[in-house]
Structures
1.
Amino acid sequence: MSHSSLPTIMRAFVLHGHGDMDQLTYHTDWPVPEIGEGELLVKVLACGLNNTDINTRTAWYSKSVSKNTTGSKLDEADDDDAAWGGTAITFPRIQGADVAGIVVAAGPGADNTLIGKRVLIDTWLRDWDNPMIREKCGYYGSECDGGFAEYTAINQHNVHAVESDLGNAELATFATAFVTAENMLNRANVGAGDTVLIPGASGGVGSALIQLANRRGAKTIAMTSAAKIPALADHDILSPTDIIAPPSRDGSGDLAAALMKAIGRNNVSVIADVVGGDLWPDLIGVLERGGRYTCAGAIAGPMVDFDLRTFYLRDLTFTGATIVPPGVFADLVGYIERGEIKPVLAAQFDLTELHSAQQAFIDKKHIGNIVVTVGS
């Protein structure tokens, strides 16, 4: 498609400020982004949802917030540090990081052989002259406009052609959830012989952790609410070694005992956590001596009760996992193309239904990922 034949306006859902759903508005006449040096224009076919969409809209990342993730703007939130990187976000902003699309145009110096190819977009923005420098990294759909629109412009280094029979909505389930999960497992050096406990196992990252840890030969213990256990147990793609419910917050549960009943031991070698909250001390209490804890989220709350004695007396290793090193996304595309991982598509909505899609995401009654479809 030549630049002259490209449309000049597009449909887009645009975030105009921190707040409730009313800050997220649908437009039919938003300008199609211009493509600069080394950039590609991608026609968006589908875009998945993730926690960053909600957390950024509600300003949950602000250090002034101590509550769990919510769908509404938090009164105590400070807009000055409300983006994932501890800074302010620029409005208006088109969110959405998990894009499956087709390249339709190339800017000066960009690879025009990608035009016409179906692609996925690496969500991490980098200084491509110094791609390992974390301080210069940004997040697609946060520091630049993302995929809740008909078109998006992105550096060619972020664009990966994908050869797959999967549908567009299925491809849009992978980027954030699976790259986050793979980064967590890399950070914790998970391999065959490990037993990995996965809180929040029914969500996008949690379900990705099951598949990716299984792929490495590890045993996977999925933790999810009692109400979701039957659906997770019967899922035709996910196959954790075992499934347990979290201990009750009234003190009647015992995580170590639940593990003993499920797998014949009362501890695990790795915890891959996106939940946090009040359950956190119980999790750390079931790490074996020399065990590893890796974290990429805190949907149940960022403030935890941390006993330093457990940490140092049991020789534990803790790793945070956010910015993903270059190369991990290309690994993921290879897993997809070889059929080593499969999409867990819980529901799909039209772009016009983004409010409903976000509410379904917030309600967390699903297993896997929620996607909005944009084009065809």
Note: The chain has two domains: 3-173+343-373, 176-320.
2.
Amino acid sequence: MLWFFRRASVVAVCLLWSGSPAIASEKALYRIFLQDGTALVSYGEFARVGDRVVFTVPIGAIEPSPQLHLVSIADSAVDWRRTDEYTETVRARRYAETRGEDDFAALSNHVAAALNEVALTKDASRRLALAEEARGNLAEWPKHNYGYRASDVTQLLWLFDDVISNLRAAAGLPRLEFSLYATTAPPARPDLLAAPDARATFDHALTVARMAADPNERVSLLQAITAALSPAATAGSWEAAVRERAAAELAFELRVTHLYKDLAERTLGVAERHARRADVRGIERLIRNVHAEDARLGRFRPQETAALVATLDLRLDDARRLRLARDSWALRGATLRAYRAAIEPAVAQLRRSATWLEDIRALAGPSPGSLTVLERRMAAARRTLTRVKPPAELDAAHVLFESTVKMIVRAAQSRRNAVKSNDMAVAWEASSAAAGARLMFERALDEINRLTSPPQPR
């Protein structure tokens, strides 16, 4: 039995090494088949990203090297059955030209090692299990390696069938019918197409340019096509005809781009003015005008139009909010203005005291007599604020005015104590209180000015 396993091992190695190494081609040209039957060339593999197919289209002769341009088309335009089948064929060819023989060499080593292990194992059941495991792994190999040298693998499977049959007999088990074992036939694949000539690559590029959803992508590709063809091409030649077509399409795209850009700039400028005036009806008219103008231009820029309308919707929302705020303010305007008039005497006292407050902050005075006057002014301001009941929305501002008065009184008293005791630390306490009072007064004024003035656009 040992001689049989050694012979099988030698046969396996001979079969697996009988193939000749392939010469790898330098380029992999894939095909993307469209629903109308057109086959676009993809230089290298393509990628499906969302609802788009991204690939590199060659422009010009494939040899020695074409110009390459990254493009995308809608995946709904692709015949995926034909495209996927052809892609597998190209991958199988590339695999055979690059990694196939190396992987097959590794497989040959695994097969020989498995057969040797079977030969050296004493236990009959263990030998059978090893042989069946090795055969199973061998049968799976072509499925994961593009069916490379599947016929050689099939011969090896029959060899393993003989081994397994003998091992089963040696273990006292019935032999199996060889025909029950599945063979590994290479899958049927479409033939590879010849590399396109230069004219075909330009035709493909023009087709892709018409299919591209992004106008910037169309313009870029058309510019690449025209740049790749000499303006001095012989009249009547295919180069001149293709360049003329590409130049005409490019001029059209640039004109359309300009028209839609002008529409967007004009519309947004007017929309901004309408939004600042809270002119809701004006912005609604602009949206209708955009749709009408888009229809007149042929609806060639759906993405730009959608973006413009979306921006107008935002301006419309701003105008509606501003109109509501102004109407609400108008309803409360009389109450707010009455409150502003009622506290004006207190605000005036605070403004008149600003110079003395700054002297306290800067440790530059004022005189003791001025401190007395400052305290009398704050008492008057407090009485005014106490008599006034603010509207609900002005409660916070009113509290800030009251806190400002208290902080100024505290600053004046601390300054008086510092003067009496000639204590610099107390003078700095007065300075801090004066600084806090000034900040609170400014915040209170800002808040009341905001709430008693008509709402402004954001």
Note: The beta strands are 29-33, 39-43, 47-49, 52-59, 67-74.
3.
Amino acid sequence: MSEKRIMDIHQFQKILDYHFRDVSLLDTALTHRSYVNENPAEADHDNERLEFLGDAVLELCISDLLMKHFPAYQEGQLSQLRAAIVNEQPLAGLAKSFHLGDYLLLGKGEEASGGRTKPSLLADAFEAVIAAIFLDGGFEKAAALIRRLFTPLIEEGCTYRDYKTTVQQMSQHAFKETPRYTLIHEYGPDHDKTFEIQISLAERIQATGIGKNKKEAEQRAAEQAIRILETLFPAGRE
């Protein structure tokens, strides 16, 4: 690592309030694949594997928190709450609170397209940082950070509405079928793609959504489908 990178890593640890024994884990967590593709001699690992692990650690910890905070909730209610919390928008919001985007290593194309502020990229990097702490200090260290960050959000009810879960429940109730999502278009360069997704409900309702990743596009499509359903089936009318 360069001297500047070492200083950046040190600064981010102070913001995170966690000191790594192996700082290379944090360096990898803050390295986007676009940087590795453009600088193979400087970096040979991106954060995607850590993101995969961090997502699993986060889901387990959030599940434990929700069961303790809502002892009377059933499995379906807990699943809906967890989906609303372990979601792109709240994760990106937490990443921004740590100024995480300032410490990412990005390729030139990703940098030029505003990658440091992209919610999907920030959310993924945040999950990678959680995995890095898990590997460096063990489960309890990662769980302690998650409890510190997410307990206030849970207690204040500051969760992102998961439109996909909501539309699935509405579709099951109205049509006894689950929604189907289809990718109908994607455009733009690899580092700045836009996706268009169509949602179909029992071949009676269709809507589309656009996003910078497939998850975001699906959420937007689900949101539009909910509006149609609410028009067809107003509250209090079957």
Note: The first helix runs from residue 3 to 16.
4.
Amino acid sequence: MIRAVFFDAGATLLFPDPPVHQVYAHEFAADGCSFSDEDLARALEGAWRSIRSQGKTDRYGGVRGEPEFWKSVLNRVRASLDGGIVSDQAFARLAAHFRSAGSWAIFDDVGPTLESLGRRGLLLGIVSNWDSHLPRLLEDLGLSPHFKTVVVSAIEETGKPDPEIFRRACARLRVAPEEALHVGDSLSEDYEGARGAGLMALLLDRKNQYPAVADRIQGLSELSAKMGI
């Protein structure tokens, strides 16, 4: 029997609004960088592909390592565009932007889903590869009251798909892994990671990219029916 449901955060519950590439484009242009939309898209994808290839479960290097991590990401993108580096002023503006609740939007299906699950007595939590500002962001967005625990990779110094972060989340809600379901949009980090830790898992496939995955939903409104409740 499912007693707890964990959710990923980004692209599952919330998304950047305006989109990341638009924010970066504005700041890079203000910082004196010349580029095309195609150049920026390639640079962003290349930077994150390089980070993922390192295989680190805590990409941030803990809370103390967050500023250097984000600077390295931004400088990697900037270097791909014109060989330059991001100014301190641009970095500060970007950091402030993405820490602000006004820079994020919540998917329409999130509120009704969380309220429905809560009424059924299920324990809800978040397991996310994010920096240490996520709990404050969730509070500012009004989502915190729904969750009994928020487990964040930078704070834990381990992240998905490592089984350890899922085990810690289960322990904090005092449920066994087999009593928990995890829902997220990443095939490797959320779906395969949770299953590898002994949890049940559903892949949230909002863009219909993984039709071959049986245990998937295309929106959170399908969650209750998929759970059989």
Note: The domain at 19-101 is CATH 1.10.150 (DNA polymerase; domain 1).
